């Protein structure tokens, strides 16, 4: 039977680099599917509706939640964000791995959902709080108030770091990408091997018993 896809969750405080890393991973492996979230936040310059996010108003978002079309949803920095369920289910049923860029609340909800067995969660830490601030400023996408608000919430996000399967410090971008690739490759191998390993161990057990060893 074909392997069911993984749900690869990236979380971090705002500005630590998860969107940048997610984009690099999509280039590394074109078979990865990105879970395009719905959000009530306004688009930033350059963001494309349907690619970066589905930009919706609050009434539309509420309907998606009420219709149970969301795998998870949360209020983050004063806006609503959520992961539509159908594309995720379709992708993993087809054996494709899905990449999520969600906060700790979303990660927890997915880890507690029916799909929990497919979850691979990775938390990205910044090298320092000063560097986190520098990255938010350098990104040039948010005004000073927004950046200050995100910085104030950064510890709240970081404090959930130990609920994840893996934790990486995103200092050097190339190195972090390489580590993410290693984690994903190893987890794919581990999970792909699991069914065959069980059969193999049963065969070894029968052989062991037949020999009367
Ligand atoms: N290792 C790194 N070294 C230097 N700059 C980096 C590194 N990783 C990411 N950046 C830069 O930091 C900024 C923030 O990165 P990014 O937008 O990917 O963060 P994010 O975690 O997705 O933030 P948000 O949660 O707000 O979407 C970007 O300008 C990005 O180019
Ligand atoms: N729980 C969810 N969190 C999400 C989702 N999509 C994004 N996010 C998180 O929101 C913040 C802010 O994102 P930004 O694009 O406004 O900078 C960040 O932590 C994202 O990970 C989602 O679907 N669910």
From TrEMBL:
Entry's localization field: Cytoplasm
Species, as recorded: Loktanella fryxellensis
EC id: 2.7.4.8
SMART domains from the UniProt entry: GuKc
GO cellular component: cytosol
Its biological purpose: Essential for recycling GMP and indirectly, cGMP.
Catalytically driven reaction(s): GMP + ATP = GDP + ADP
Keywords annotated in UniProt: ATP-binding, Cytoplasm, Kinase, Nucleotide-binding, Transferase
Keyword Transferase applies: yes
InterPro entries (alphabetical): GK/Ca_channel_bsu, Guanylate_kin-like_dom, Guanylate_kinase, Guanylate_kinase_CS, P-loop_NTPase
Major location (coarse): cytoplasm
Alphabetical list of Gene3D superfamilies matching this protein: Guanylate Kinase phosphate binding domain (3.30.63.10), P-loop containing nucleotide triphosphate hydrolases (3.40.50.300)
Protein name as catalogued: Guanylate kinase
TM segment ranges: none
């Amino acid at each position: 039977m074909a392997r069911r896809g993984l749900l690869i969750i990236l979380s971090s405080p705002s500005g630590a680099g998860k969107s940048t890393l997610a984009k690099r991973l999509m280039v590394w492996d074109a078979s990865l599917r990105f879970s395009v979230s719905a959000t009530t936040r306004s688009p930033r310059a350059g963001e494309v509706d349907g690619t970066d996010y589905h930009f919706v108003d609050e009434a539309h978002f509420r309907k998606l939640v009420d219709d149970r079309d969301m795998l998870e949803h949360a209020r983050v920095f004063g806006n609503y964000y959520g992961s539509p369920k159908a594309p995720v289910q379709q992708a993993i049923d087809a054996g494709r791995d899905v990449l999520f860029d969600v906060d700790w609340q979303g990660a927890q909800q997915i880890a507690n959902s029916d799909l929990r067995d497919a979850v691979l969660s990775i938390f990205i830490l910044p090298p320092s709080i000063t560097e986190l601030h520098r990255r938010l400023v350098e990104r040039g996408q948010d005004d000073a108030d927004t950046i200050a608000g995100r910085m104030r919430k950064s510890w709240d996000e970081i404090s959930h770091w130990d609920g994840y399967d893996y934790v990486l410090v995103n200092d050097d971008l190339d190195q972090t990408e390489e580590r993410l690739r290693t984690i994903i490759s190893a987890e794919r191998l581990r999970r792909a091997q699991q069914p065959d390993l069980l059969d193999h161990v049963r065969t070894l057990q029968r052989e062991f018993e037949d020999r009367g060893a």
